Amino acid sequence: MLITYTAILKTKKEIAPRVFHLQFSYPTDVNWSYQSGQYMIFHLPSLENEHPIRRLYSIASAPSQKNSLDFIIEIVPGGIGSSYIENMNEGDSITMQGPAGIFTLKTSDRDIVMLATGTGIAPMYSMIQEISNSKNQNPNIYLFWGLKYGKDIYLKQELDKLADENPNFQYSICLSREEKNIDDARCLKGRVTKGLENLTTDDLRPTTDFDYYLCGSPHVVESLRSDLEAKCVP
Asked: What is an example of a Pfam family matching this protein (predicted)?
C-alpha cells in the first residue's frame, strides 16, 4: 500500500561532484515500513502546469532507521527533477509516496554479489546495512561498485566501517577511467565485471554460485546482465 505524506528536508550535503546525500524526516504518526531496495516517489512541482512531476529515488537508509529516510541523488544537468532537488534548502517540504518496488532481498542460503554503478549504490547500501544489522547467520556479500574516477568516490568511510565490522562483507570500488594509482586495497581500475572476475578466479568458484543484484543506469544494467548470461548465470 502506497502512503502519501509531506516530508521535510533535514540535511543536504554534496558528497561528490553533483551527487547529494539528502535526509528527509516524516511525521511520527505515519505508520508504515519498507524493505531495503525499495524506492519512494517524489512529487515535484512543475513549471509548465499544475500537475506535479514524479521522480523515483531509491532509499539509501536501512529500515531500522526511524523517522527519517536517506537518499543519494545525482544532479543531471538540465533535468527538471534534478534542478528542483538541487535548489532545495534544509527545512523545505516535499510530497512523497511509497514505498514501492520489488527490488528487495530474497530469502536464500547462497552468497550475494552486488554489482552497482553510480547512485545505483543507494539500494545496495540499504541492503548491506540491513544484513549487517541482522542477528541471523548472514551470507557472504561481495559488492563491486563502478565509478569513473577517484574524485567520484563517496560513502567510503561508511563502507569501510561495515566491512571492518562484518567479516562476511567485502567490497571493491571499480574505477573505469582513473589513470592515477589509487593507494587503497579496496579500489581497483576497471569495470565492475573485473572485480567479479577477480572474485571467481581467486576463490575458484563458478559465477553460477551466487545470487546477483544489479543496479545502475538501464544500459549499464543491461550490459551487466548480458555479461552474466554469457557466463551461464540464469
From this structure: NAD_binding_1
